[in-house]
Design a protein that fits this description.
4 helices; alpha+beta
Length: about 100
């Protein structure tokens, strides 16, 4: 087991795994994970996208990190209501300048 897998599997591992996938989703598409969720509804242009790329999380809480107009990474937050996860992720992203 890799160190990252061991960390994700530990206490609270489900939340960690979800937060990692939220961040990964935000970075793969350079947009908020919740926006992908809106586009991936039945009949939407990205329907079933969540099963691609090793699994994506398509609800709020993942945001790209942008510095100087360039995406430099992403932040994923999990552990509360998705609205709260998104608020915390946006607050964290706002610290990047």
């Amino acid at each position: 087991m890799t160190p990252n897998a061991a960390w994700a599997a530990g206490p609270g591992g489900s939340r960690r795994g979800v937060s990692i996938k939220k961040a990964r989703t935000a970075r793969l598409f350079d947009m908020e994970s919740g926006a992908i969720g809106e586009l991936s509804q039945p009949g939407g242009p990205l329907y079933n996208i969540e099963v691609s790329n090793g699994g994506l999380i398509t609800f709020p809480g993942g945001v790209p990190l942008i510095q100087g107009g360039v995406v430099i990474g992403a932040l994923g937050v999990s552990g509360s209501l998705v609205e709260n996860d998104r608020r915390v992720a946006l607050a964290g992203a706002a610290t990047i300048s």
